[in-house]
Structures are given as structure tokens and as C-alpha cells.
Amino acid sequence: MEEFVAKKKRALALAGGGPLVGIQIGALKALEEAGIEFDVFTCGCVGSWVGCLYNSMPPQQDRIGAITEFFRQIFVEDDVFSKYPVPVKTFLVDYQGDMQKTLELMMDPESYQDLFLPWRIGQYMWEMWNQPATSKEYFNYYLSKGISLNPWARYMMNMSYGLHKSGRTGLVHNDDLVNQFIDFDALCQSEKLVYFNAYNLSKQQIELFVNRHNHPKFATGNAQYLMAGSSVLNYTANPEINGDKYCEGAVIDTVNFEHLMENHPDLDEVWVIKITDYESIKPPQNLLDAELLAVMLPFTTIADDDIKLFKYHLKEQGDTTKVVEIGMRYDELNYHWSYANLDKGIEVGYQGAKATIADYS
């Protein structure tokens, strides 16, 4: 083990994967116990929160305990989650703002145009008369089409999908949770370099942020950029920073290898904590599972592609940097934002990292 822990320049890639963040917490615990240190942290989405929080604290502090407590503020008690599966402290609904936007839409004359479509209704009636429903599928089609032509149904649908907002909720407020746990001044003074990404929707480009002031390439990471890089499309509104709209960078680079070797060509090893795996996907049992899977499934495939491409480029360039993937028992977890899933993820991450360390050493 002494040879294994011997000083090498290492980077740790903390991938995106939201409700499976417990894997990263448990893995970091095992890596700490083994005395394995990293000089560079390259992060995406929820991994950015872990990387920033972890490196904003001194090594002598209980960093694993602090990260666990942070995410227990985000995840939901099991009994609450069982019937209301929403992490309400993170995904915040702006009730007053939504009401104002609804009133504005109600007062907009365009909201009342094309509600009643007599010509379309006539076509619909003619179609039903000439082609009566002969199966359950046809019956349901006619029922759905009839509802789509109902003026009241059309009005209510527009009140929902016509609102001028880019997501269902906002993300956690800076002063409510982020700055309470993450000291960005201390983070910028850390000996470790921490990169995280966000996708600039306005400029159609991935942007990197770093825990350094006046960096020649990248902007200084702060709470705004951190939340921008975690803004899930559809779930959260796209935050605006300096006139540009952002969303999570994990939709492009789930594992953030962008510029890693260019900035650190002397790396000996790159360790990867991928927290989702498409080979462990389970068929959804209900609408909650289906909705969460729709969000998470792309990340599972993007993460694998990111790793394959990174290895390919290393080989193509004759780079001998070793890539160490920490294997996990992904099939033991789900995508629920519940305490039970967080705790199970920590255990799975801990055991997976211990096994990887044992095999590697």
C-alpha cells in the first residue's frame, strides 16, 4: 500500500448524477482512509458541489461528515418522500412570481385567440362519423383529440405551458444554503485546483470555472456559477449571469475532462467516480421512476462516452496517464431524493472504492 499511496500527481473526476451523489461521498471516505490524495478535482453538476465543498475545508476537519450533512439538507426524509417525492429545499417554486406571470398571461389578448376552432371541430366530427372507433386505441385517440379542441382545455393548457418561464422551479438561493456550507474564499485559497463546468445556452458553449482569482483562462467559481452548472433543464429555470442563460454542463460533459490534460500534462493518474451506469437501469415501476429515468438516462450514456473518448485521446497522443475507474454496485440504488437512497449510496460508494483500491494496490 505504501507504494500505491506514494506521491503521484492525481486528478479526481466527480461526475454528474444528482440523487446518486452518495456514491461520491462514500468513495471519498474510502480514499481518505487509504491516504490517497488528489491535486486536481474536475467536476460536473452534483459532483461540483461535492468538489467545492470538500476543498473549501481544511483536511483536519470532518469533511465527509460536513458533505453528508449538506446533502441531508437537500434530500428528503423517507416518510415525507414516500408521498411527496420532491426535494423542496433545493427546487424552490416562486409562487408569487408564477402568480404574476399567470395574471400577465390571462390579461394577454393572444391567450384568447384560437381557443374556439369551429373548422377543426367540424373536421373532427366528420372523421368520427366516417371512421368510427373500432379499437381501444382509436377510441382513446378520438377522446384525446376532442379534449385538444375543447376551448376550456386549450385555455388551461396554455396557462400551464404558455407561462414565460424556462423551468418548473428555481434553484436553491445563495444565502439559504450554498454560502452557508461552502466558503468560496477558503476554496480559492485551497492548494487543490477545482474545476467545474456549466453550459452557456446563449453562446452554445461549455464553460469552465476554477477556484482561483484572476485565472488566465477561466472565471472564478462562485455560488452563482455553481448553481448554473447544476440547473437541470425543465426542472429548474435557466439562471442568467452577465446577460447569458445557463444550464448544467453535465448535459454535454457528464464527466468533465475538458482541458484537463492541456492544463495538467504532468498528471500520473486520473481517477473517475462515475455515479450512473446504463447497464444497471431498471424498468420504471411508476410515473416517478419514469420521470427520473428520463432525466438520468442520458447522463449514464454520456458519462461512458466521455470516459471512452478520454482514454482514446490519451492513447492516440501516446500519453501514459493511467485512468482508474472506481466500480460500483449501481443496481442497488435508484434515483430517489430520499434519505434511504443517500445512505445506501454512501455505503455503495465506500465499498466500491475500497474494492477498487484493493484491486489496484
Envelope shape: elongated
Q: State the distance separating the first and last CA atoms.
A: 6 Å
Poorly predicted ranges: none
State the fourth-level CATH superfamily of the largest domain: Cytosolic phospholipase A2 catalytic domain
Computed over alpha carbons, the radius of gyration is 24 Å
What structural category characterises the helix and strand content?
alpha/beta
Please bin the fraction of helical residues. Answer: 40-55%
Alpha plus pi helix count: 15
Task: Assign the CATH architecture of the largest domain.
Answer: 3-Layer(aba) Sandwich
Describe this structure in words.
The protein folds into 2 domains: 2-92 and 170-360, Cytosolic phospholipase A2 catalytic domain (3-Layer(aba) Sandwich); 95-167, no CATH class. The chain has helices at 2-5, 22-33, 46-55, 63-74, 78-81, 95-107, 118-130, 136-149, 151-161, 174-181, 184-188, 223-228, 260-263, 287-316, 339-360; strands at 10-14, 40-43, 167-169, 193-200, 205-210, 219-220, 234-236, 240-241, 244-248, 269-273, 322-325. Helix 7 packs antiparallel against helix 8. The chain has 15 helices and 11 strands. Helix content is 47%, strand content 13%. The N and C termini lie close together (6 Å). Strands 1, 2, 4, 5, 6, 8, 9, 10 and 11 form a 9-stranded mixed sheet that branches. A two-stranded parallel sheet has the order 3-7. 34% of the residues are buried. The protein is elongated and about 80 Å long. The longest helix has 30 residues, at 287-316. The mean pLDDT is 92. By secondary structure, the protein is of the alpha/beta class.
